[in-house]
Amino acid sequence: MMNILDRIDELRKERGWSVNNLAMEAMLTQSTLNNLYLRGSEPKLSTLRAICGAFGITLAEFFAEEEEDESGVAAELRRRIDRMTPSQQSALLAFIKSMR
Fold it and tell me: DSSP secondary structure string, the chain?
């Protein structure tokens, strides 16, 4: 079973974020996150949604086991694309198609 706080830490550290950075990105108070860590408790669903939003992932992606064959570069690209607006995604796709 996945430890939710460990998963949050894993995603936070991948981005080089401090707890304060995560709080700002998720629009949560730093004390909200600090209390989770101090108590070792699981966040409320609304808090976890805000955290996932800051990471640019869905709740399903948060709980999904990482595919072993996905490289670090592919994972980073997927995360960055997920954070883009639809028009940015379309522009990126057009750029990639032009590379053929």
Answer: ---HHHHHHHHHHHTT--HHHHHHHHT--HHHHHHHHHHTPPPPHHHHHHHHHHHT--HHHHHSPPPTT--HHHHHHHHHHHHS-HHHHHHHHHHHHHT-
